[in-house]
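User: Hey, quick favor. My workstation is busy. Could you predict this chain's structure for me?
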Amino acid sequence: MDSLRCVRRAGWLALLSVLAACSNGRGSVDEPPAQGAEDSFAIGGNVSGLVGSGLVLQNNGSGDLAIAADGTFAFAERLATGAAYSVAVLSQPTSPSQTCTVARGVGNVASADISDIAVTCATGEFAIRGTVSGLTGNGLVLQNNGGNDLPISADGPFTFGNRLTDGATYTVTVRTQPTGQSCVVQNPSGTIHSADASNIGVSCVSDAFTIGGRVSGLAGAGLTLRLNGGNDLTIVDNGAFAFETALQSGDSYAVSVRRQPTNPTQVCTVHNGAGTVGGASVSNIAIDCASSSFTVGGSVSGLQGTGLVLQLNGDGDLPISGDGAFTFATPLTSGSQYRVNVASQPSNPTQVCTVASGAGTIGNTNVTNVRVTCASSTFSVGGTVIGLQGSGLVLQNNGADDLAVSDGSFTFQSELASGAAYNVTVRTQPSNPSQACSVTNARGTIGAGDVSNVVVSCSASDFSIGGTVQNLEGTGLVLRNNGGDDLTIDGSGTFAFDTALPTGARYDVTVERQPRDPEQTCTVSNGNGFVGDGNVTNIVVNCETRNFSVGGRVRHLRGLGGVVIQNNGGDDLSIGAEGDFTFPTRLPAGASYNVTILRQPLFGDCEVRHGSGTIHDRDIDDVEVRCDD
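Assistant: No problem, here it is.
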């Protein structure tokens, strides 16, 4: 160092002598700069690639220098010529995590500033990985951030090929579902924090589809369908049906009629009832029901005259020419009423023909027991009514010849021939008050005189008609007894009609109006019979709610991250690609639905069309989520 200073001083002396020789005439020259300004030099360089924060450099183990961004840098402490310098990284940057390296950071000062030290920073990259479980189908494809497709063929771990830098976000979605399965992603999105994202799970379950269709022409009760030899389903009305047991794609199905309907008797046939489940619910099975028809007839005895004409339900005249069997030409459907009467009595000789067993309800066979008896000598049938307090008592003889009576004696208008049978019954029980009237000496055979010993005894013991309602959720359920006497039911529990019935009276409880909000189907068990000597409490009304799905289709979905939709402010559904969708939560008939966008895709905008309404006895499949092209 001393020798260098001597050289400098000698140089100055030489320079002064030259300047003196070139004096401007005033005997002076410019003074040299002060010593020390050129004795120390800056240590610095350039930083590149820095995106994180917290980078700190050191020189010779001290002089900490915080670096905030790319560009030039210089340490505060300057070094003299010949001094050693050693630049190193004290603290690496974070957020994101980076690794910075120093080039040309070690040397000695050579009479000039050091400005070529290079600090280069690089961001770390990390893997996106997870585990698949439950996969049995083929074709599963995952995506990360709307790309980087990854086909998955079996359960186990998976890793996307593209790695992400620290601080980057990721969103894993199912681009293509496997055949016959639905897969969902757990922990699908997040941000890289200096490590691999490894907690992503993909769970797959096999799809299940309903088996159903429509019933038409049903008028009777008791129709029961069966799926694959079990899984019975009772059908109470026309319209859509679906078995409760769902089947997976590839399963076979076979629908049959286990029990045909009655009252009226019908025959129901199945169309499109067998096949293999594909990738959707089966809804094209058709159940067509047709009522069976039966003839009405019987026998005629004792006919001697001519001109006897019978009628069926006041129409369809049938001339009878002699004793023997007869049948009306027009058949009647099962469940319909029939009544046979004499339209014209025979003459030459004049006779009176009476009808026995001439009225009733068509069952599931032909009616063959109507008896028409003709006689030339006729006698009256009558007797006495006792204990009658109410009004409206109507008696019948042999199922016809209605007679409204009051307390005291009575005689039927139509006389019967000797040898003819008679059978006195109560067609209509009295009311105000309700009474039960029974007949003694009610039946027999006409002899050689009038019948006058029939006794009709009436009593006023009344009993309530009721039972229990189960599983009622909707409102507006109305029950009806005997075609009137309506009773509104507000909830599950016991019920009883306001009108009590006497012993022997018939009761027939039906559903007059089904509940709504939600819509339900209520059926009556033990709903008809005759009142005994106590209250009727064993009628059971059971109500069932049918649920339906809400879904539709996503169109033109192009943004990153997919779209998330909601139904009724919840039931979130994440959609990563365009196509059909269905919310997992089903809704009952009568319920409202409102599909909205919870989260838009990155760099995209979607809107919902046909997104709200009310469930009406079918699945909702026309909701449209349309995104920008």
